[in-house]
Write a structure and sequence with these properties.
Chain lengths: ~120, ~110
Amino acid sequence: EVQLVESGGRLVQPGGSLRLSCEASGFRLRNNWMSWVRQAPGKGLEWVANIMEDGSVKNYIDSVKGRFTISRDNAKNSLYLQMDSLRVEDTALYYCARDFRGGHNDYWGQGTLVTVSS
Amino acid sequence: DIQMTQSPSSLSASVGDRVIITCRASQTVTTFLNWYQQKPGKAPRLLIYGASNLESGVTSRFTGSGSGTYFTLSISSLQPDDLATYYCQQSYRTPHTFGQGTKVEIK
């Protein structure tokens, strides 16, 4: 059974940093693109970033470029999102999702909540 | 970035009704268009990928169609379990933008 479990979300002050993790099981992470998608409280889904199977290609939305870094450790079957210079508007539930061939997201975790507030 | 616009933003329909949700892209996405269902308090679930391909395990009451810039998601015979918000997403070009969502309520 495919499972994705996110962790690392918490309350952090504006300007702070946080590292989210996503542990995958039931499939080999190294065979898949992976994504982060976020959802602000009461709002819609927002695609944040994705990363190619070997980590050589990474894509980001403009609002997080230069602040967030997506990475992976295929040996540990884990995906990460390093979040720096956090802003109030980054407050959201962050989902990890598997990309099928760099396209649609066929499996999702349950999300980890990031709250940026003073 | 490619903008995705769904309509309506919300709808209320009766059990057994046929429901249609539309999604328009600001430029062509060919058939790289996906639909997701998100029930309250839950993670999104993939329903349709490649505009018209039903994800494994999803009821055939859901049908996707379209290409280019115009797409539809149809729900035949609406059921109480279909209470959810539905999102389209283009995966033609990064960022893989989502529509704003369509909230489906049961009368």
